[in-house]
Specification:
Distance between the termini: 74 Å
Number of domains: 2
Mean pLDDT: 94
CATH class of the largest domain: Alpha Beta
Bound molecules: pyridoxal-5'-phosphate
Order of helices and strands: HHHHEHEHEHEHEHEEHHHEHEHEEHHEH
Strand order of the largest sheet: 1-7-6-5-4-2-3
CATH architecture of the largest domain: 3-Layer(aba) Sandwich
Largest sheet: 7 strands, mixed
Shape: globular
Number of helices: 17
Structural class: alpha/beta
Low-confidence stretches: 1-12
Amino acid sequence: MLTQRSTISRNRPLTVFEASTAPRISTRAVHGGTERRKPHHALTTPVYQTATFTFADTAELLEYVEGRSGPAREEYGRYGNPTLSAAERKIAALDGGDDAVLFASGMAAITSVLLASLPTGTHIIMTDDCYRRTRQFSETYLRRLGIETSVVPMGDYEAMEAAIQPGKTRFIVSESPTNPYLRVADLERIADIGRRYRIRTMIDSTFATPVNQRALEWGIDLVVHSATKYLAGHNDLLAGVVVGKGGFIQALRDARGVFGSVVDPQNAFLLERGLKTLALRVRQQNATAQAVAEFLEVHSKIERVWYPGLPSHPDHAIAVAQMNGFGGVVSFEVKGTREETSRFVDAMRIPYIAPSLGGVESLIEQPAIISYYDKSPEERAALGIKDNLVRFSVGIEDTEDILSDLEQALTVI
Ligand SMILES: *Cc1c(COP(=O)(O)O)cnc(C)c1O
């Protein structure tokens, strides 16, 4: 009796909504990877708030350890949980990958890929203008393990190829668009270099989301997202995800079971819920960011705007060819000192001053203060972080209200 009740979906093949049924992104966001029939006929994914999974008797345990239980059988929370699997399948469907694996944060995802794949004595190539902690991880922690990193300028593919150490280079790691200058990598070119030299390519696509750019479709091997940002979308949880080919992702899931950086079921539920509105949110954020960029570019108090949707951006042409939208982050330089820039930031009424990006609430920050205050002005200049630089992550508030807010705040300088 108990056995019957506790094996709701065991041994029954999952009837999952296939992404191939719905090539369009909003339908994929709502239905992609979702099991059509859930326990108790629930429509939404249950939160399996459990640390472990039980076996009715030794015979059932033997069935499991001998690999006869089918795909829906779980063992222990660090190895898998149905709520996590639902979020993973949806992200795989959105990005067009075989499979995806969730981690406790974006950094856990990035560090786990590299730690799980790189033996001592190997080498990776990374583009500059990348997430500060990714670079810190490779230049500090990977170096200690005897894994070297070459950093090449974003957009210089000759330098990328020249940095390859035959037999030693195992990964090319890049981001697109980057933080904070929204540089866009030529994914086809990176994928081509990777293929020719048999080097794995990985793109941090956090700023793009699968709505605006699907790097796997351009031949990239692995896509990583900080799901904390647009994917979850509500500034209320931390998570990360890696998407790619089935075998590699399963190996990474096994590594997660050892490293332990698993996301908890409640956050996985919130992430899957947030994903359903991803396309709606991102399209609104694309539209507002474009309007903000155009408004600021002709404003007398603004020195320079960085937004790939503007023809003035160095990577506008690649962005147009490769992306379906240009994202919700606009970076710009105010005509003024660091203090004058801060006065403008403080005068903004809608955005919160905070790190992070991609949520429904607009966030604004001055990178020189929030991310690089520990550096001297000279070091900041060397990193290309100017004192008057502002990064604005637009939320889903009305475009007109955000434009009015910018207009009034710029009058204070
Ligand atoms: C935020 C971010 C990360 C790190 O993600 P966490 O979820 O904060 O660990 C990595 N890459 C990019 C581009 C990010 O914006």
